[in-house]
Specification:
It comes from Candidatus Giovannonibacteria bacterium GW2011_GWC2_44_9. By secondary structure, the chain is mainly α. It is built from 14 helices and no strands. It is globular, with a radius of gyration of 20 Å.
Length: 278
């Protein structure tokens, strides 16, 4: 699935490059140190991110992994300042915090794990269920290898997006998006082929996932184009805000119902995205 999706994204981004710029930009801008160095760094980091995500899902439930992964925007603030000297405004920092918090709430699935004894002793018993619901992903960091992998993936993602911007500035959003997705598709294909996962591919599913990738590749180009106009903390965080539209569109088209907590999370994300404008 990941191979077909990434392949579709890469091909659609490459077709956009050919349509708008032909092949000349691809030939002249790719073979420069200004592009190759940041691209190599982000490519290696994304391999670790993919591997770390697989390990996180192997050792821990998705209800723990997803909320912890949403903490990436908070790491981006620090890493972008350290690597690129980019620092958001006061309201921008508040907006980033809101988006991270809103995404955390939206990803909560209510995993049931007992509270640590020290926390049980200092909190009212009637509040234990609510505290466990909200804080279980964070509390699992001490005892769960998968939770720590998820947090590590968030940190690596915060580092990688800075090199994404450098690669985009050295070429353009279409070239970077296409090469990044094609690289990821190649790595996953080689590893899965060695594992023997390509013996009986489903052709019907093949075209559906590939077609979805073609569509999403256009969205990826548009998101990466944000690096041309905004700082990494804003662009990287707003990528996370897409979950807000997932909630809205799922309600509108699929009739999915969302509890009060998810609506609160969506509202917090919207408020955060608005604050980033100031």
């Amino acid at each position: 699935v990941a191979v077909l999706f990434a392949l579709g994204c890469g091909i659609s981004a490459l077709l956009l490059e050919f349509a708008f710029n032909g092949i000349n930009t691809l030939k002249t801008s790719v073979w420069t140190s200004a592009f190759l160095l940041p691209f190599a760094v982000t490519a290696v980091l994304n391999i670790f991110i993919l591997y770390g995500t697989v390990l996180a899902m192997k050792y821990e439930d998705v209800s723990i992994v997803a909320p912890l992964s949403s903490s990436m925007p908070m790491f981006v603030i620090v890493m972008s300042y350290a690597l690129l000297g980019e620092w958001p405004t006061f309201w921008g920092r508040i907006g980033i915090l809101c988006i991270a918090l809103g995404a955390y709430l939206l990803y909560l699935k209510g995993a049931k794990y007992p509270l640590p004894m020290w926390l049980q002793t200092i909190t009212p018993e009637k509040r234990h269920d609510g505290i466990a619901f909200l804080l279980t992903p964070c509390l699992r960091l001490a005892s769960s290898k998968g939770a720590r992998y998820a947090l590590g993936v968030a940190y690596l993602g915060a580092v990688a997006v800075n090199f994404d911007k450098l690669a985009v500035l050295a070429t353009n959003p279409m070239i970077f998006s296409s090469l990044a997705f094609l690289f990821v598709a190649s790595v996953i294909f080689l590893s899965s082929n060695v594992a023997g996962n390509w013996k009986n591919p489903n052709i019907v599913v093949f075209w559906k996932i590939f077609g979805l990738g073609l569509f999403m590749g256009i969205g990826s180009v548009m998101m990466n184009a944000g690096y041309l106009y905004g700082i990494v903390p804003y662009v990287g965080t707003l990528k996370r805000a897409q979950i807000l539209w997932t909630v809205v569109l799922a309600w509108f088209f699929l009739g999915e119902k969302h509890g009060a907590l998810r609506l609160v999370g969506a509202a917090i994300i919207f408020a955060g995205a608005t604050l980033i404008l100031f």
